[in-house]
Design a protein that fits this description.
36% of the residues lie in helices and 22% in strands. It has 213 residues and is of the alpha+beta class. It has a domain of 73 residues. The strands form three sheets. The protein has a two-stranded antiparallel sheet with strand order 1-2. A two-stranded antiparallel ribbon has the order 3-4. It has a two-stranded parallel ribbon with strand order 5-6. A hairpin with a 5-residue loop joins β3 and β4. The two termini are 36 Å apart.
């Protein structure tokens, strides 16, 4: 029987940082808006997916593709269709670009956790919405992941938020690595705008290095 490969912390970091984190942002955003669309459609027709009710307004009827241009890049969304009437996501404009939602907005933080299995499989393992990114909020979020079966975490990669770092140490007790996307953003903020492309080109190869030397 072949020996099961276990990724080292360095390999996990390299895997997480493929594409400078852009793929993570794009995948997370796509997953989040898909959940939002499903919630909006459920509210519109008066029933969750697969739920049978007598007072529902209509039924789902497949999906239609639509391009969405965001700061994370272009996304191809699958927008739910209805048998009667129509649905259009509240977060889209008719031109397909991201725009502020017109309803009254309340500032909240949306957090997403990605997991990389020792085999290399990557998936979204958690999403939550909170009033603020406090240490207590992060502790509750991480404990929720553990309660749902998360175990054996070898490395956590995140921004340098003090509350998050403390919660990771308390709940997961694993090694911590700063997200290079945030690190690079901080570095670029120290240079003039016209210098930033050159500085980014010099820094990015460091993240892909096979060793410290």
């Amino acid at each position: 029987m072949a020996e099961k490969h276990r990724m080292t912390p360095d390999e996990v970091v390299s895997y997480l940082l493929e594409g400078d984190g852009v793929d993570y942002v794009r995948d997370s955003l796509r997953w989040m808006v898909e959940q939002l669309m499903e919630a909006e459609v459920s509210e519109l027709i008066g029933a969750e997916r697969g739920e049978r009710t007598d007072d529902r307004a209509t039924h789902r009827n497949g999906y239609r593709p639509r391009r969405w241009d965001t700061r994370a890049g272009e996304l191809e969304l699958a927008i739910p269709k209805l048998r009667k009437g129509s649905y259009f996501p509240s977060f889209l404009s008719r031109q397909g670009r991201a725009r502020p939602r017109r309803r009254a907005l309340v500032r909240k933080c949306v957090v997403i956790a990605h997991g990389v299995h020792e085999s290399g499989r990557r998936e979204v393992i958690g999403l939550d919405v909170g009033e603020a990114e406090t240490e207590a909020f992060w502790r509750e979020f991480l404990r929720g992941l553990v309660a749902r079966g998360l175990l054996g975490v070898q490395l956590a990669v995140s921004d340098a938020h003090p509350g998050l770092k403390a919660a990771i140490a308390q709940v997961l007790g694993c090694a911590w690595q700063r997200c290079t996307v945030h690190f690079l953003r901080d570095c670029l903020g120290q240079a003039r705008k016209d210098q930033q492309p050159m500085l980014a080109a010099l820094i990015r190869p460091i993240f892909a290095g096979q060793s410290r030397y």
